[in-house]
Design a protein that fits this description.
2 copies of one chain form a homodimer. Chain A has 307 residues and is an alpha/beta fold. Chain A has 2 domains: 38 residues, no CATH class; 266 residues, Divalent-metal-dependent TIM barrel enzymes (TIM Barrel, Alpha-Beta Barrel). The first copy, chain A, is built from 11 helices and 13 strands. In chain A, strands 4-5-6-7-8-9-10-13 form an 8-stranded parallel barrel, surrounded by 7 helices. Chains A and B meet through loops of A and loops of B.
Chain lengths: 307, 307
């Protein structure tokens, strides 16, 4: 939908770029103060290249000059966490996150207890693969009212924080788009993630900001600033919102292909002092169908031009 | 996903009903203080029965004992507003709303001017069909940042309010779910609708609350109370959020088929003193494919059991 013709002066703090709306034929020129990027801050979530195994991800990302990798559990499963950790270390990969823990919400107390056990194992696995944090998709369940669900989340996180501390693994609450409030997460804005962080007040607990989920939020800039001050801004994920979006789950776009003003959001994140990895997390049936090596090259290009 | 077995004592202020989660086999018993309902407060949006013409809607709703109808423009178009008004009056229908005006957002000033002209015509049509209000889907456009888009909305509404006053037709801002923030509306929570109302401070301007769009909002109860105090609660729309939802546009459920706790939300609306029509607005490819008379009977049943 949106094509951006980049004219990036990367040696400079300021970017000039011209965006051309294919369907509007209007030109806008925007100055932004997001910091220049190179691939040293780039990380890819393995789910982005879903057809690949962990070995293929490590090799394929490395070939494109990308040394950051956030590891989803499905690629750990076939080799085990110890072996996965060895592969990642041997290749010199940086691992921002293991994805994903959470899903603390259930009507049944036994199911909630079992979710806590699963999350304890996630923390151990994160430690084994050298991941800095576990990303938490907090959970939701039809029949559990959202305020009650948020209590389950707070209780669940409280129960696993001691293990996170002893393992030196951070926990990052990822607010999910409100379209996932029924069955995936009762934490749908940064504000609700912040409330959990404030309640538990633990330096190991923070927030993973994914532009896909929060770009629409009128309070986003304030909440990012606040997370910066509260030292809870643990992660920054990018992709784009396609217009139209054809599927609720698997139609994310690469940066620059949708309507999200990623550079402006990143300038807010930069301003907090965040200088960690910028993680690419794209679920796309279309992209999963193409040659994954070509795809990773496009990811790198989109990262440099539109993140 | 969610099946509710109703045990409604309608002569009583209190409802007892048992909800049974098909996939969880858990039973919950809930007491609620929403007022008992009969069909006298029921209205259907013509888009709900999309295969039908206006004449078929009037006849079909009437056959089910429903005298409320919110009229979408596509069923007015073939007969014209004057004739549509005559048909509705002759049948003794109550018309809460003409649907829909709005779409005030555009990069181009000429396009914005033209949107205002369209909305002036919508107000005239609403007056011709005897509708109490025009529902506004405010608009959004990729390439227009959301704060800027909200200015277009405020300016657009300000420009048409004098006509609304002289025609005696109210304008109701409908906050749309954040999944429509890219291309349908930059007003995604009651809070943003309230800000526009506060800025323009006109008794003819208020809010249409549709549970589908706002059920997830942690501020919903507060905002409904506030709208009650500010006398901006103009309309209440119901349907349900299916789990899973298979399409962003046309997979709404009938009341009771999804995860929205409609009775609790209605109890908040009741508490403000709102006693207007409860409008059913369902877009569903599945339901559009079935016999529309049978469908309207199911709507009436779902209205009484789950709204």
């Amino acid at each position: 939908m949106l094509t951006t013709i980049g004219l990036n002066n990367r040696g400079n703090r300021w970017f000039l770029f011209a965006s051309r709306l294919l369907h509007g034929l209007k030109t806008r020129v925007t100055f932004m103060n997001a910091r220049p990027l190179d691939l040293s801050r780039c990380a890819i979530h393995t789910q982005t290249t879903k057809p690949w195994s962990l070995a293929q991800c490590i090799e394929g990302y490395g070939r494109a000059g990308i040394r950051g990798i956030s590891v989803w559990r499905d690629v750990i499963e076939p080799v085990g966490a110890e072996q996965a950790g060895k592969m990642l270390r041997d290749a010199g990969m940086q691992v921002p996150a293991l994805v994903r823990g959470g899903f603390f919400v259930a009507q049944d107390a036994m199911a909630r207890r079992s979710a806590i056990d699963v999350n304890l194992r996630r923390i151990d696995e994160a430690s084994a693969i050298g991941a800095q944090m576990v990303v938490l998709v907090c959970g939701a369940a039809p029949g559990v009212a959202l305020p009650e669900a948020r209590k389950h989340v707070t209780e669940g996180i409280a129960a696993v924080l001691p293990r996170a501390r002893s393992a030196g693994v951070k926990l990052a609450i990822e607010p999910l788009h409100p379209m996932y409030a029924a069955d995936r997460s009762c934490i749908n804005r940064m504000a609700e993630a912040r409330l959990v962080c404030e309640q538990l007040a633990d330096p190991m607990l923070g927030i993973a900001v994914d532009v896909y989920h929060v770009w629409w939020d009128p309070d986003l800039q304030n909440e990012i600033e606040l997370a910066g001050r509260q030292k809870t801004l643990f992660a920054f994920h990018v992709c784009d919102w396609r217009v139209p979006t054809r599927d609720l789950l698997t139609d994310r776009g690469l940066m620059g292909e949708g309507c999200i003003d990623i550079r402006t959001i990143r300038s807010w994140v930069d301003k907090t002092g965040f200088d960690g990895p910028i993680e690419i997390e794209v679920f796309s049936q279309d992209y999963w169908s193409m040659d994954q090596n070509e795809y990773v090259a496009r990811i790198a290009e989109a990262f440099l031009s539109h993140s």
